[in-house]
Amino acid sequence: MICPKRTSELLDLHLAPFKDKDPAWEVGVSKIAGRGVMATRQLKRGEIIFQDSPLLIGLAAQEEDTLNACSICLKMLPDTRFMCRQGCGLPICSLCAKKKQHKSDCDMFKSWGPNEPDVANSVIIRLLCVARAINLTKDQRDLIYCLQANLDNNHRTEVRNAAKCFKNFPTDKKLVEIMNRTVAVLRTNGFDKTTDRTTDNQEFSYRALYPLFAVMNHDCIPNSYYTFEEKTNNMIVRAAVDIAEGEEITTTYTKLFTGNIARHLYLKMKKGFTCKCSRCSDPTEKGAYISGLYCRDTKCSGLVVPETTGLPHPNWNCLVCKQKSTHAQMMKSQDFASGAINAKVNSNSLRTLVHYLNEKSDSFIPSSNYVVIDAKMSVLQRLAQGREDCNEDLVSSTRLRYSRDIMQIMDKLGLGDSLLRTQLEQQLHKEEERRAKKQLELAAKQRQLADLEQRAAEADKLIALALAADAGAATPVPVAEPAAVAPVAGEAAAVAAPAAEQA
Ligand SMILES: [Zn+2]
Ligand SMILES: [Zn+2]
Ligand SMILES: [Zn+2]
Ligand SMILES: [Zn+2]
Fold first, then answer.
1. Ligand 3 centroid to residue 280 C-alpha, Å
2. Rounded to 5 degrees, what are φ and ψ at 237?
3. Residues 112 and 169: beta-carbon distance below 8 Å
4. How much distance in Å is there from the Cα of 321 to the middle of ligand 4?
């Protein structure tokens, strides 16, 4: 284990520009593994724990990425004439072309002689983040060497492949070793592909090394979360839950909604360790059943979960009838469900997908299963982009329902704050606000209608009264006349008769 004291000294130098006088953290011996970052005092949920700046940062230039992003400011560039005219083989914007950082990159790569400097080459662009380690100060390089590195057989491949793209790639063993070590550190503790940079719907990824973040250990239910400051690329780490003094501050290296077995495999293969956190030791994942599947006995309604999570092929147990199944049998069910749902996710009709998730999928896969959660997340993402041809009611009800579903699973897992939770809460809030506004509008309309109806009723009453009054005044004329004729005549006759008689 590398000495926590030396790591702390080097971190202090790195963080000097913005380190608090009385930091809420310190590097100490961890119960999880080796060193870790510990809370020096009680921390409230949401509180900033520390700020870290990237020691190295550059474009990831992955296969799916567009290569026309500036190698310094990482901003998108027009897709023609974005390469440096000095022949260094790097994409650069006109502003950054004049910066000191580019001069240093430019001089280094020009001296190595890229084979085709005018053509954007992903291998060259990707190497920049690693090659920059050569120009760091000795203390900064020592800090890289202080960080955990998985020195497996593959870690030299990147530099070896990049060497083929230059005419005079350095052969100095020390320089090549610095680059190889940096690759290993980035793969173990850095961000090798962070894709939260989106410009005009074009997404590209970058890789970066945040040294203090790199010292933090992993937990599948992390007690901290991070965001990035756009201008500086600094990382802000906050408490996801209340953290007690002395408690280790943890982060997660995996996606939040992958099942125990998939997380176990990822951490073992990519990060080289076995996680023993509380979620990993619980086959039900705290009752969230992220990898839960239905019992193979069709008469049983129980959920089946892996017996243990520390094995790649565990047996599975039904929680109700206790029937055991092999891993292969359960993977068949999972593969079938994943295939069916992913086909719908890719079918491009959001309406079909939502209908399928709401009405059909529950018959063959529990709604807690990660493939359903992933599908719901992709629906929410598509709704947020607002390009779907769905009616307002479907958009609204789906947004509410899926945000709540996902937050419920987060609550079960005991996940505190995160960027995802903030986004979901915002969606929910916006949707509830919209609904409330709509209801107010509806209520106002109903009041208006009731008002109109009341006025119409009053008008009817008035008309009836007026008619009745009219009728009262006019009755003798039209009504009495014909009836009066005969009696009057009779009367007259009767009257006349006696009168006549009298006469
Ligand atoms: Zn730029
Ligand atoms: Zn250049
Ligand atoms: Zn774990
Ligand atoms: Zn069962």
1. 4
2. -105, 130
3. yes
4. 4
